[in-house]
């Protein structure tokens, strides 16, 4: 809507399209609950309070007497790829839960498709009704100890920072590089700050002088606080603290009661998910954060503010979204009950139930490149008994432990031993950058414990951060079968047992996403979880756990296509000691 038309709509000389009457408005600007009607023209709020002069013959009037109206909720930091669906389908599911705004960091897509992937995301956003803003990934790849599908260097990041819809630099995970004044990292941060945009942080466990140094670089937020005391120290130093409640990491039940007890001001805190898996996205989204915060003692208006205006103000987009204010986008959540945050309906730009159907270029479905895998491709060979470094997977955690076990070769090969919960693990480079990755090059091999499966194998092309193919199994035949099934599907998840594929999910978009609905992906994923239980898996979320075993920036022992990684020393180590 042109500016002169907005002014006329505000004055009432042009009548509104929509009027919500009789409701109680959650005013996050003044922290009040007010009886007020809302007038909307061309998706913009043009009246609040007495709107009688803005109602004409063609105005749609909806009586919401007895109900409450909240601003649309905002997820302050999310990698939408964790939902295993396209951004369009993720955003559609989010709207159903009152989440009309998202600050996304397309880090996973960028690791596979690079600049093209980020540009595809920006193009897709243009056709979506939700208010979606992008933080440009700052660490692609996250480490030199893996082979990624792309690199976002300083010139590329700089170009992307100038794009419409981009509001900052994504989480700077390389905090050692920042503290060491790495020129490349500092150039990225300085460019974001020069443009008046935010630089997101990622500094688990950081306190004291290191934290002060990190903040002096211009980084202003963090979602990785390990303890409440750490979060409070960051807030006191001026950092915006993201309270995370995702599928893999949760902090609300630990942090919120203490915030309430200590009487801490909440303006520096806002809610994020970081990740939301398909089943969790169906069950709820940022509405779950608000309800949980209210249950834990935060006043409903404050809880809603932490999921709306606090986020918008931090990212300097509060002139667009984040409140029910004149001139802002009409992203509105009508509630039957305020304390229970029970959603009646959702308006996005003053409109309900929008479902665009985007088209994607063919090349995004052709990103899995490796030659056919044979069982012997996965062998670890030795002629003598060895002491082996074993990765220990931990339930619902992205870090691992490390133990030493004695292994006895058979015919010169070190085999997995499921009776001791020692399974074979391999990472297969899938971006076509390692030559003949079907034989010896491009495959990292090792052993892992913690899954407990008694037979079979499983694999996936979701392996943070570079998203090579990762496979675990009790035998090399089923492992090779799973890897080749993923090759055929052009990405996805596969489970095999006794020489047969039991089931799988095709994720052909960058090897990470399905173009199907969240519901269809979740149904298939539930089936695969059931299969994993049948073969003896003891972990509640085996695919999530597996996806982080290749992440070489989270301690302790991980594996990439280049081999075993001692994360703390940032070096490749031999499997056999």
Counting DSSP H or I runs of 4 or more residues, the number of helices is 16
Helix fraction bin: 25-40%
CATH superfamily of the largest domain: Metal-dependent hydrolases
Q: If you compute it from the alpha carbons, what radius of gyration comes out, rounded to the nearest whole angstrom?
A: 25 Å
Largest sheet: 8 strands, mixed
Low-confidence stretches: none
Strand content: 25-35%
Count all strands and give the number: 30
Oligomerization: single chain
Q: What do we call the CATH topology of the largest domain?
A: TIM Barrel
How do the strands line up in the largest sheet?
20-19-23-22-25-24-26-27
What is the count of distinct domains? 3
Shape from CA axes? elongated
- How far the N terminus sits from the C terminus, by CA atoms, comes to 68 Å
Mean pLDDT score: 94
Determine and state the CATH class of the largest domain.
Alpha Beta
Structure classification: alpha/beta
The CATH architecture of the largest domain can be named as Alpha-Beta Barrel
